[in-house]
Design goal:
Blueprint: H1 6-14, E1 38-44, H2 51-64, E2 69-75, H3 94-102, E3 113-117, E4 131-134, E5 162-165, H4 168-177, E6 184-186, H5 201-211, E7 218-222, H6 232-243, E8 249-254, H7 265-274, H8 281-285, E9 287-290, H9 296-305, E10 308-311, H10 320-327, E11 332-335, E12 349-352, E13 354-361, E14 364-371, H11 373-386, H12 396-405, H13 410-420
Parallel strand pairs: 1-2, 1-3, 3-4, 4-5, 5-6, 7-8, 7-10, 8-9, 10-11, 11-12
Antiparallel strand pairs: 13-14
Helix pairs in contact: 2-13, 6-7, 6-11, 10-12
Length: about 425
């Protein structure tokens, strides 16, 4: 399958530059309720675009805005040896990077709390006063997710120690695995409301003209990794089916061969093999693949430019792009019954009915949701029939999406997290 060149993306992004991109969350910092400065050591990943590293870095920036916290950081080993900050850069602004990378390490016994956010899950240091460990799972937790499977699970919740996870779906899977139900807390992820913001009508019009996209085109987007649980195969299949009747639609996908070694081509080839003739040359020409790593600002421009973000996932620990797309005023077509139910209660989220499943996948006990393909196709067909969406302010769905996202700033997350730390 032929991949679109980087030049298409570069033209796309160059025309959506916002005049004032500070990279700071525009939510006001929470009121200070305690005068004591708490010393917190974060043990995690920074500098790369893996989801755990991205969450860690956003939380660092939000915690650093508080005057009642003193932050330290220890870098944990990468999950994959080929990761590096040059090829897989997280894409934060230079100012944010200086703050993130400037945090120094300290002995775990010298802080009020250790907050560990990496994979696998490392056991708490007995010398630490308190350890809060971040754990997340999509299909289900397993012993391979533990750095030392011989360590009793009670060590992670002994004394003041806690586990935090970003969704009720993930919490339930951790409890299924055997963690103490009373010691697993849900702290949802957030979104940077200053960087993630809607595009104007002028920006949308200029962008379509520059890319040669007709005014009546409807653009769908998904930037998830092309793994089975993300449901990219269902999205491609539905798009190709609808294209027969709506030749004006476009689909944008994100390649992940650099970070994970997972090209989108494998999904396209799988769908083409299972449904011969479905992916015609015209369909493939209507599918654009983003081949390069994106900065935070560039990714947000992409969210704001499209008409719909579509995520027919089977299992997610949270699904942060869904929240970021809402902040950019982009309505959703998203699976019902999974992690996104925690933050997609809005008219701007069209739900794909799903059936909860338990079973064995690749020899492992798993849980997932089967999205109804016919419902996905129907929703996308309805979206295509409506035509391209108007800009934020004039479009009720774009307005509702942004309003929902405004309830989930990273500053709010930092307050919830700090209550546990």
């Amino acid at each position: 399958m032929k991949q679109k060149s980087a030049s298409w993306l570069q033209r796309c992004l160059a025309l959506l530059r916002h005049p004032d991109e500070t990279g700071a969350d525009n939510a006001a910092p929470p009121p200070e309720t305690q005068t004591r400065v708490r010393r917190i050591l974060i043990a995690g990943w920074r500098g790369v675009s893996h989801s755990l590293a991205m969450v860690n870095q956003h939380q660092i920036l939000a915690l650093a805005r508080r005057s009642d916290v003193k932050l330290f950081h220890t870098d944990m080993p990468w999950a994959m040896a080929h990761w590096n900050k040059q090829a897989h850069n997280a894409g934060f602004s230079e100012q944010d990077n200086v703050l993130i990378e400037g945090l120094q390490s300290i002995d775990e016994a010298e802080v009020d709390c250790v907050y560990r956010i990496c994979s696998p899950l490392f056991p708490p240091n007995p010398q630490a006063r308190k350890t809060v460990s971040f754990a997340v799972t999509e299909l289900g937790y397993e012993s391979g997710s533990l750095q030392n499977p011989e360590i009793p699970l009670t060590d992670f919740t002994r004394g003041e120690n806690l586990l935090v996870t970003p969704s009720r779906w993930s919490r339930d899977r951790l409890i299924d695995f055997g963690f103490d139900e009373g010691r697993v807390r849900v702290v949802r992820h957030g979104v940077d409301l200053a960087v993630n913001r809607p595009a104007s009508q002028e920006e949308l019009a200029v962008q379509r003209q520059a890319l040669g996209i007709p005014d009546d085109s409807v653009i769908f987007l998904n930037v998830g990794v092309p793994t089975w649980n993300k449901g990219i195969d269902l999205l491609v299949r539905a798009f190709a089916t609808i294209f027969r009747d709506h030749r004006n639609i476009r689909l944008i996908l994100k390649d992940a061969r650099g970070l994970y070694g997972l090209p989108v081509d494998t999904v396209l080839q799988s769908v083409n093999s299972a449904y011969p003739g479905l992916l015609s040359a015209d369909v493939l020409n209507a599918i654009h693949v983003i081949p390069v790593n994106l900065s935070q600002a560039d990714l947000c421009r992409m969210f704001g430019f499209v008409d719909w973000y579509v995520s027919p996932y089977r299992a997610e620990g949270f699904n942060l792009p869904v929240l970021e797309a809402q902040a950019c005023g982009t309505p959703l077509i998203v699976t019902s019954g999974g992690a996104t139910d925690d933050f997609c209660n809005t008219d701007a989220a069209w739900k794909i009915p799903g059936t909860f499943r338990r079973g064995i996948l690749n020899g492992k006990a798993c849980c997932w949701v089967d999205p109804e393909f016919e419902a996905l196709e129907k929703l996308m067909r309805h979206a295509a029939a409506q035509g391209p969406r108007r800009a934020y302010g004039a479009d009720p769905l774009r307005n509702a999406a942004r309003q929902n996202a405004e309830q989930h700033s990273w500053d709010q997350v930092a307050s919830e997290l700090l209550a546990l730390l």
